[in-house]
Amino acid sequence: MTLVLALQLGSAAFVPNAVAQSLGCSSVPVAGGPEDVVIRWDEQRGGRLFASVDPRDGSGGDGRLQQLLLDKESSASTLRLIDADGEPWSGATDFHPLGLAVVSEGGQEYLLVVNDGSVPGIERFLVNDDHLVHDRRWSSPLLTSPNGIAAISPSEFYVTNAALSHGFRRTLEWALGLPTGNVLHYRGDWQLVVDDLRFANGITISPCDNRVYVAEFAARRVLAFDRDPATGRLEDVAAAGFTLPDHPDNLTWDSAGFLLIGAHVSVWRTFCHLQGICNQAPSRIYAATIPQAGSAAAATIIELKASGDTRLRAATTAARYRDRIFVGQLRQPAILNCALRMPEDREVFVGREVTQQTTTERCALNQ
Predict the structure, then answer these.
(1) How confident is the model at residue 58 (pLDDT cuts 50, 70, 90)?
(2) DSSP for 25-87, written as a single string
(3) Which alpha helices (H) appear in 177-287, and where do they start and end?
(4) How far is the C-alpha of 210 from the C-alpha of 132, rounded, in Å?
(5) Backbone angles phi, psi at 360, to 5 degrees
(6) Which residue has the higher pLDDT, 363 or 356?
(7) Helices (DSSP H) in 217-265: which residue ranges?
(8) Is the pLDDT reported for residue 171 higher than 80?
(9) Are 61 and 112 in contact (CB under 8 A)?
(10) Which pLDDT score is estimated for 9?
(11) How far is the C-alpha of 217 from the C-alpha of 270, rounded, in Å?
C-alpha cells in the first residue's frame, strides 16, 4: 500500500499531490482492532509502541494491551496484566481498552487506559518489560462513555466522554451527532470542564504551550483550549481550533511538532464497517502544524492520502517514530507500519524529525 501526502493551508481546499511524498506500508498483525497507539522512547529499549486492541468482529472476546519494540522486533507481543501480588489481573475479563496515555514520575512509567467495559473506568498500570502491573482504577457516574485520555501526571488527567450513554444508545448519539459529549478533569475529584460536544473523541495536550486539543467527531473539527494548571479548567480558544473535511478521531503529537489526526470520511460507512456489513470505511490521516499561543498564523494541514488498491479502513490513530508512521484501524487486526519513501521531499515532513530533539527545539519550529 502507498500513501501520498497532500498539503492544505488554513481553510483552503485540498490540492491533490501538492506535496508528492509517499509512504510504503506493511502490516503488523495484532490480536484485534488497534483503536489507539502511543509511542515512547528510552535508552534501554529504544522506541516502544503500546496499542489498545479489541476484537470488534463480534467474537465477544476481551481486549488486550500489546507492544511493538520498534528498534528490535517486527512483531507485536501481548503484555501480561498482573496485580500488585503478581497474580493475573482480575479485571482482564471485562477489559475493552480505548484511549491510551503514558506518563513518567520518579523514574517509573505509567500507562493510563480508558476501559470501555460494562462499568467504564480508567485503569492505571506500572510499565515493565513484558508485563503491566495494575495499581489503580478510577470510576465515576460522570464517566458515561469515556473515549480519549490525556495525562498530566499519573494521577491527573483529562478524559473525553463521547456521549451520555453507553452501549447501543451511545451508538445512536454518535450516528445522530447529538451534542451530549463532554470533557472531564480529574485531580483528586472529578469536574466537568467542557460540555455540549458532538461526540468528543481524541484529546491531547500540546508539549509547547500547555493547550488542550479535543477532537469533536460529529462536528468535523478540532477544538483548542487554554488550560489553567491551578484548577484544571479549560477556556475555549476558538481562533486556535480548525475544521476538517472528515470526522476526527484520535490525536497524537509527534517528535517534530506535528499533530497527527485519524479521521473518518463517513459516519455511516464506519458504522456499517463496524457491524461487519461493509468491507470498506474510507478514512484519512492528517498531520497539522499548530501555531503556538499568540501567533496569528493558521494551521497547516498535511493529508496522508491512500492510493492504489488498498485503502485505510476506519483508521482511528497514527503515531510517528523517526521516518515511520504507525496507523491503527478500528476493526482490522493489524497495525500499518508505513515508511516514508521520497528522500528528495524530506524537508517537507521527515526533515523536521530530530531523534533526540528537546521540547524547546521542537516547539520553536511552530512559532
Answers:
(1) low
(2) EEEEE-SSEEEEEEEEEETTTEEEEEEEEE--SSS-PPPEEEEEETTT-SS-EEPEEE-TTSS
(3) 267-274
(4) 29
(5) -60, -45
(6) 363
(7) none
(8) no
(9) no
(10) 30
(11) 12
Closest CA to 257 of 367, 362, 101: 362
Mean pLDDT for 117-142 is 96
C-alpha grid cell for residue 170?
451511545
What percent of the residues of the chain are helix, what percent strand, and what percent coil, each to the nearest 5? 10, 50, 40
Beta bridge partners of 104: 109
Cell numbers for 42, please give them. Answer: 528510552
**Confidence (pTM):** 0.87
How far apart, in whole angstroms, are the C-alpha atoms of residue 141 and residue 139? 7
Contact 143, 122 (CB under 8 A): yes
353 alpha-carbon distance from chain centroid: 20
pLDDT over 70 at 251, yes or no: yes
* Secondary structure class of 360 (helix, strand, coil): helix
- Return the C-alpha cell found at 106: 520518579
Least confident of 200-204, 225-229, 286-290: 286-290
How far apart CA 215 and CA 49 sit, in angstroms, is 22
Owner of C-alpha cell 482482564: 92
- CA 165/CA 40 separation, integer angstroms: 33
CA nearest neighbour of 286 among 1, 2, 52, 5: 5
Angstrom distance (rounded) from CA 118 to CA 92: 12
β-strands 80-82, 131-138: how paired? parallel
